Amino acid sequence: MAGGYIAISLSESGINTSNNTSVVTANVYYYGNGVSWSNYNCPGTIVLDGTSYSFTNTVSKSTSAQWIGSASKTITHNADGSRSVSCSASFTVTGTSLGTLHASNSLTLTTIPRATTPTLSAASIALGSAVTINTPRASSAFTHTLTYKIGSSSGTIGTGVTTSKSWTVTKSLANQIPGNTSGTVVITCNTYNGSTLIGTKTVNLTVTVPYTAEFKPKISSVSIAEAVEKVKTAFGLYAQSLSQLNVDVTAAGAYSSTIKSYSTVFDGVTYNAAKFTSNVINGFGTIPVKVTVTDSRGRTDTKTVNISVEEYAPPAITEIIYQQCNADGTPSNTGTSTKITVTGKASSVSGKNSKTLVLKWKKASDTNYQSRTLTASDWAFTVSTIVNNTGTDETYEFAATLTDKIMSVENGVQTGKTVVSCHAGGDGVTLFKEAENEGFWVGNIDYTITDAEYDEIQKLLGGGVLIRLIDWIYPVGHVITTVNPNYDPNKIFKTHTWVRFAAGRTLVGVNEGDTAFATAEKTGGEKTHKLTASEMPGHYHLLHDYGNSANVYTSTKSLASSESTSNPGYATTLTRYSSGYTKPSDTDTYRLRTTVVGSNTAHNNMPPYTTVYFWKRTK
């Protein structure tokens, strides 16, 4: 090249990790052009990272690199350990036409490791467990301070940490994630060189809430009390068809979780509140109250409390009948007294109930009743009483009232008036008048229930009340009779099962004193029967010779020991008497018998009958 020039060479040495420094040296070189000059002491300047250094040197006209000056400087790196350095130089070649020469250069220094990047022994752990935080420091002089933060909670894990730290994650951090089963803890690592903060790094740790009782919601109490004051006062017990429960559930979440839902299953119904009043209890016996709570983390707790419910049914007068009689109770259609028989039942409720049976009566034309309290010793009873001065020339009304601690029921009968009448064909029943139409009538009011109405009643009553009513009227084993071929009780009583019963048979009352009739549903008898000889009455036939009236055959032989005068059988030895003949000896034997009659067939063995359809409830 024409003329000389200078160049700068930069180098790095003395890297000090602890001090975050390194030494940079700049060397300046001159390249001549073969031109001679008379002044050989030339001044120069090096500016290294902003610091000026002066030098002088003598150069020749050689074109080879000639070192003319240098400078060194300790450079402090940036906080992250990185750094770059720039350098410039000037050199005046005096006494020549070159004048002042200039050069510049830069150098990117080695990045010195600074802040420690922490690592974890496990990316996810359960609260209450330990994790190791590794701190691979760049210098043995470095120490660390470890801190954590999750939600609004933060704290120090350790100070002066060198290469690692074991940390048991406190269970209380679950309070920061009340609506979740896991969360993120941010762990911060501050790296120090002595008291100087070198840098900060973070790492994330996933913490999970253990699925243990400690972290689940807890039902502390299930308070249950009678909601119906009348039942509480009457019995002090829970009673079927009467009681309702006041239920109060106390529960709390764990570690800041909250109770999000309640579910209580009782008597076939689910209730979704902490406090509620149940429906009327349908069942009886031991009935569980099963409570389940769910918290904001989706965790549950269940508690079951069993209650004892006593069986109860409303008092019922199932039948009241009257019979005209004399004053001593002897049946008489012209008697001046009336025998009233009342059948009914009430519930004991473990002996806590009471019952009162009152009979009242009056002439149909009178306003006021007379009354009498009847004694019904058993809870299911049939009692009778005789009411005098109730002749057949007047119509009398009788009514029986059965009262327990909760309610009363009344049933009545009127003398001289139709109470129940069946419509011809068996397709209708009418109360208190003669049946004129199909269906169910009370007087002149049609109470027939269609299928749709039946289903609606089921819905309105929840099914249970209607089913129990049918159970009271038609219990399992009950038999009903009809002459309607289209009648099927399964179509009416849809929640029960009826089967055809006693087809081709008559019904006979149970007689415990006769083994043939000692229990229900025993069978026997024959539709037809063929008589055996032993079943025929004892008898004999006289033999006459109608061809010769003088000849008469009579038995002269003594009866055998197996015969009797009431059943002599055939005569085996006969003596013939005839005018002009000599009596033969007893040894003369004549075997005789009458002509066989009868066809030897079975005879009809049935009494007079009328056929009906029997249906028996089985379920």
Describe the structure.
The chain is mainly beta and about 625 residues long. The protein contains four helices and 41 strands. The strands form twelve sheets. It has a five-stranded mixed sheet with strand order 9-15-14-11-12, with no helix packed on it. It has a five-stranded mixed sheet with strand order 17-23-22-19-20, with no helix packed on it. A four-stranded antiparallel sheet has the order 4-3-6-7, with no helix packed on it. Strand 33 (about 440) and strand 34 (about 445) form a beta hairpin. The longest helix is centred in the C-terminal third of the chain and has 11 residues, at about 450-460. The radius of gyration is 61 Å and the shape is rod-shaped. It starts with a strand and ends with a strand. Residues about 545-595 have low confidence and may be disordered.
